[in-house]
Amino acid sequence: MDSPLVAAIEAGGTKFVCAVGTGPEDIEEARFPTTLPEETIARSIEFFNEAQERRGNVESIGIGTFGPADVDPKSPTFGHIKKTPKANWSGTDLASPIRESLGNVPLAFETDVNAAAWGERKWGAAESLNDLIYITVGTGIGGGAVSDGKIVHGTSHPEMGHLRVPRDKSIDPFDGCCPFHGDCLEGLASGTALKERWSEDPAKIPADHPAWELESSYLADAIINITLTLSPERFVLGGGVMDQDHLFPMIRERVTERLAGYIEVPDPEKFIVPPGLGPQAGVLGSLALAQDMLK
Ligand code: ZN
């Protein structure tokens, strides 16, 4: 059976990725910076209009967005961005104008990291797994979870980027950069934190720099906390900071060491992995969510 043609958006804090397609082998994308809401939404609509002229109408849309966002379909503000530190975006109705421009097709609205987890489960490094976590370590840190084959929601969506992790001030005197919590995980281990702590672009910090000891330590502690809470089969770690491949063995080693045999990790190399879909995890996950709306 042919997969339906659908629309997808990975709405990031710094860039939007809009796409039309049927799957990883057939996807047409446009990437542009996230500017003012009206301008960014208009640009997305323009892309979809042009794509539909070429390919015909899409049957649904999936949006994976930066947060916090209202992902509860029963809420009157479903599809809106909530109060966010990102200037001008608090309270923006992201979903409605785009959905309306597509003829009110069915809509899936999720966090970018939940969408990425879903994409990795469908086509990527966690194919067919029912319990997995996707964490992005970039400008900020976010985590998405699939548990028992379903995307995890509570009263809102998980916010694993703001977990508390132990900080030894004698080793790391940096107070952290989260505007809400200071030294939460994002405040200590995001790309922004690396940049502020070491006064250097993380992409330029050499592999043997002490920055990575600390970075892998914080990420390992977060992974341990999540493992103890949700018992996932696999962690997929993406985002710009994780492009530093040498971090993977460092994190795996610390996780195994600190779990201290209490929970066995049979094969650390399969437990903590890079995304199979690379930087397309979020947009392909949104596409998969759009297709699921038609089932
Ligand atoms: Zn925080």
Overall description:
The chain has 295 residues and is of the alpha/beta class. 34% of the residues lie in helices and 19% in strands. The chain contains 9 helices and 10 strands. It has helices spanning 37-55, 95-101, 112-123, 185-189, 191-198, 211-230, 247-259, 268-271, 281-292, and strands at residues 6-11, 15-23, 26-33, 61-65, 107-111, 132-137, 141-147, 150-151, 234-238, 272-273. A 5-stranded mixed β-sheet has the order 3-2-1-4-5, sandwiched between helices. Strand 7 (141-147) and strand 8 form a beta hairpin. The chain is globular. The mean pLDDT is 96. Zinc ion binds at residues 162, 178, 180-181, 184, 186-187.
List the defining traits of the structure above:
295 residues; five-stranded mixed β-sheet; alpha/beta; binds zinc ion; globular
Rg value: 19 Å
Spatial order of the strands forming the largest sheet: 3-2-1-4-5
Report the strand count: 10
Structural class, by secondary structure, is alpha/beta
Low-confidence stretches: none
The helix content, as a percent range, equals 25-40%
If helices are DSSP runs of H or I spanning 4 or more residues, what is the number of helices? 9
Averaging pLDDT over every residue, what do you get? Answer: 96
Distance between the termini: 13 Å
Biggest sheet character: 5 strands, mixed
Which ligands are bound? zinc ion
Shape: globular
* Percent range for β-strand residues: 15-25%
Q: Secondary structure elements and their pairing?
A:
Elements: E1 6-11, E2 15-23, E3 26-33, H1 37-55, E4 61-65, H2 95-101, E5 107-111, H3 112-123, E6 132-137, E7 141-147, E8 150-151, H4 185-189, H5 191-198, H6 211-230, E9 234-238, H7 247-259, H8 268-271, E10 272-273, H9 281-292
Parallel strand pairs: 1-4, 4-5, 6-9, 9-10
Antiparallel strand pairs: 1-2, 2-3, 6-7, 7-8
Helix pairs in contact: 3-9, 6-7
The structure holds zinc ion (ZN).
Residues 162, 178, 180-181, 184, 186-187 line the site of zinc ion (ZN).
